[in-house]
Write a structure and sequence with these properties.
CATH superfamily of the largest domain: MFS general substrate transporter like domains
Order of helices and strands: EHHHHHHHHHEHHHHHHHHH
Largest sheet: 2 strands, parallel
CATH topology of the largest domain: Growth Hormone, Chain: A
Distance between the termini: 50 Å
Strand order of the largest sheet: 1-2
Shape: globular
CATH class of the largest domain: Mainly Alpha
Length: 454
């Protein structure tokens, strides 16, 4: 008598061992395009804000509410749609996010009052913040281990690239289209892409397997065949590693096996983003206070963002080969040195701009490592939730950093402002020391593992 034995294979292992096929590249490219338009809508308000303020006779305080409403919406969107993506799938979460920032941007073109602008920017923010967690999770789950860092970073760079595109388009088309035309453009393009994504964007096979349903098994097999070109025998059952009692929920992040890594990553995100947005939002003001002309001071922001983008892809290539904890600590050491150096540099502009460029690595670059760390520290059932939680906590830090900058430049002067950047970086570095080696390398064990070195 013959018997058949059902074998199990971890779907993550199958994905990790494969190569970047055309199907995988198509998914990553589509995620990049979505992130590009997300970044366009995010930054466009900075360029059309003065025109809106003029039309509605809005003062600086009113415009602060417009910008703050976007940030609050993005914070809530990252957390809520991140959990939605783990519970109901990456694909529906992404489609909903595109619809939100596309449809409400389109409605922004017909706003008739400052209150409507504020409400619509909040709703647009829900979509903008909500897209990122599932985009990064889907990208990571379609990328082999050796290329995962590069692919996630490439998609993440769609956000600043879209922001730069938004600035260029707004600067050249605003005199022709007006701010309402920019809103129309920011709504029309995402809604066109929504149709494309609805037709072409697949679900994550790792997510489907984690649902433990026969329909999920069949669909995951079909997607794996398209990804790898290999047919799995019927005797092989796909499984997803990582046991989570309360998957797809914030509570799952604080289960015993994940609580420590969640608290550590939350602290790193919070204080790193406080420092990063202190720098981004108030650098030109600090440079003007040091004596630089306003037109030249704007180059400070250009330099720090250009340095961030320039080092992102080379850095991502090293991520699978190094201990992310040690890399983070090295980056924080550079950031602290940059902050102290800027505080002592005075108006020696070659030194100042060299340090500002290094800040793109030592203060901003940690975001890339943190996203990679999350992709490897949490199972499929929690990955988008964890990404959304981290980004949401980070955006809370962005609000704090943006609010503190003016007080620091006014009361402590530019030198004191720069040196204060070191404080949140030191706290984030201390939090990095608490990240456990096992959690970073292969995901947390069912029970907490002791901290140590390899």
């Amino acid at each position: 008598m013959s018997t058949s034995t059902t074998l199990t294979r971890d779907i993550k292992t199958i994905i990790d061992e494969g190569q970047m096929t055309g199907r995988r590249w198509a998914v990553v490219a589509l995620c990049f395009l979505i992130a590009l338009l997300d970044g366009f809508d995010t930054q466009s308000i900075a360029f059309i804000g003065p025109a809106i303020a003029q039309d509605f006779a809005m003062g600086p305080a009113d415009m602060t509410w417009v910008i703050t409403a976007s940030t609050i919406g993005m914070t809530l969107g990252a957390i809520s749609l991140g959990s939605f993506g783990d519970r109901y799938g990456r694909r529906p979460a992404i489609l909903i996010a595109i619809f939100l920032f596309g449809a409400f941007s389109l409605m922004g073109a017909y706003a008739t009052s400052p209150t409507q602008i504020i409400v619509l920017r909040f709703l647009i923010g829900l979509g903008m913040g909500g897209a990122t967690p599932s985009l990064l999770a889907l990208t990571g789950e379609y990328s082999p281990a050796a290329r995962r860092g590069t692919m996630i970073t490439g998609v993440l760079l769609g956000l600043p690239a879209g922001a730069m595109l938004g600035g260029l388009l707004a600067a050249s088309w605003l005199p022709v289209l007006g701010w309402r035309g920019i809103f129309l453009l920011g709504g029309f393009l995402p809604l066109v892409l929504l149709i494309v994504a609805y037709v072409l964007l697949p679900e994550s096979p790792a997510y489907l397997v984690s649902r433990k349903q026969e329909a999920g098994q069949a669909e995951a097999r079909r997607l794996l065949l398209a990804m790898t070109g290999k047919v799995l025998p019927d005797t092989v059952r796909l499984v997803s590693a990582g046991k989570v009692v309360q998957g797809a929920s914030i509570a799952g992040l604080f289960e015993p096996g994940y609580r420590h890594i969640t608290l550590a990553i939350s602290a790193i995100y919070l204080f790193n983003w406080i420092a990063w947005f202190l720098l981004l939002q108030w650098l030109p003001t600090a440079l003007v206070a040091l004596g630089l002309a306003k037109a030249q001071a704007a180059y400070g922001t250009v330099v720090v963002n250009a340095a961030f983008i320039a080092m992102a892809l080379p850095l991502s290539a090293f991520l699978p080969k190094v201990d992310p904890r040690k890399l983070l600590l090295g980056m924080f050491a550079v950031g602290i040195a940059v902050a102290l150096g800027l505080g002592l540099a005075g108006d020696r502009w070659p030194v100042v701009f060299t340090l500002v460029a290094l800040a793109g690595f030592g203060i901003g670059g940690q975001q890339l490592v943190l996203n990679y760390l999350i992709a490897n520290a949490y199972p499929t059932q929690l990955r988008a939730t964890a990404t959304g939680w981290g980004i949401g906590i980070g955006r809370s830090g962005a609000i704090v950093g943006s609010a503190l900058g003016g007080l620091l430049v006014t009361n402590a002067g530019p030198s004191g402002y720069f040196m204060t950047l070191a404080i949140p970086l030191v706290i984030a570095a201390l939090a990095t020391f608490t990240v456990k080696a096992g959690a970073v390398e292969a995901g947390p064990a069912p029970n907490p593992v002791a901290a140590g070195t390899r």
